[in-house]
Design a protein that fits this description.
globular; Helicase, Ruva Protein, domain 3; seven-stranded parallel beta sheet
């Protein structure tokens, strides 16, 4: 199984967890690992815990920011042990496996796992189309990082073996994470320009709109249509790409 699925670990504290996560990935056939600001890496402890998956560690990308780690990805799924004040689209591991396999037929997919103690921040979760939550004992729901990676990787392998051939019903690849961020920036400028959004008192409007469009999983064509609409409704709201051209 050689899927374009990227496992992203954000600010991992214990290098042993990185090695154990790499081992969990390799046992399920996943090979792409990205690390966002790991506290200790490279590390002999990570290599020891990898136990045969040292090749994944050798190829791992170390990134300074989450956007860098998500570069080129379409579907982004974040792992969260809890819901937030503003609920985000939430799926179970079995559904996560199916969604990953479907999206991987069209482009890169990212699975984002947060810090051992505090998980992902709200800002980081906003970059995810969906959240996956592993059902656990409510009286003791603490799941080790590598175990969480193992559970999700297993469900992806199950889905790949049984349902990878299902038609996906899309005519274009999912919009990449960086294109989606440009769209959200354009949307905020357009809403401000037409007076719908007060930048001094935005409340949760942009957060709710992010949730809506992340849930829709826009493809390349749909992003182009939405940005064209925004440019027509609020001329001048598109931002220059640095070459003098406007991004619509």
């Amino acid at each position: 199984m050689n899927l374009p699925v990227r496992v992203v670990l954000v600010e991992t504290s214990h290098p042993g967890n990185i090695g154990a996560a790499a081992r969990a990935m390799k046992t399920m056939g996943l090979t792409q690992l990205a690390l966002v600001k790991p506290r200790h890496y490279p590390s002999a402890e990570a290599s020891a815990r990898a136990s045969g998956a040292a090749d994944l560690l050798a190829r791992a990308r170390v990134c300074a920011t989450l956007p860098e780690a998500l570069d080129g990805c379409g579907l982004v799924i974040g792992a969260s042990a809890r819901q937030r004040a503003l609920p985000w689209p939430l799926i179970a591991p079995r559904e996560c496996g199916r969604r990953v396999i479907e999206a991987a037929s069209r482009g890169e997919v990212a699975l984002v796992f947060g810090r051992e103690q505090s998980g992902l921040t709200n800002e980081e979760l906003q970059r995810c189309n969906l959240l996956v939550q592993i059902p656990a004992n409510p009286e003791y729901s603490s799941l080790n990082l590598a175990m969480a990676v193992q559970v999700i990787a297993y469900e992806i392998r199950v889905a790949a073996g049984g349902e990878a051939g299902l038609p996906v019903g899309r005519e274009a690849p999912l919009a990449r994470a960086e294109e989606l961020e440009l769209f959200f920036e354009h949307l905020q400028r357009a809403l401000t320009r037409v007076g719908f959004l007060n930048p001094q008192n935005p409340r949760q409007l942009m957060l709710r709109l992010r949730r809506l469009f992340n849930r829709a999983e826009l493809d390349d064509n749909e992003i182009a249509i939405m940005r064209g609409i925004l440019s027509a409704l609020a001329p001048g709201s598109a931002r220059s790409d640095g070459s003098g051209r406007e991004q619509d």
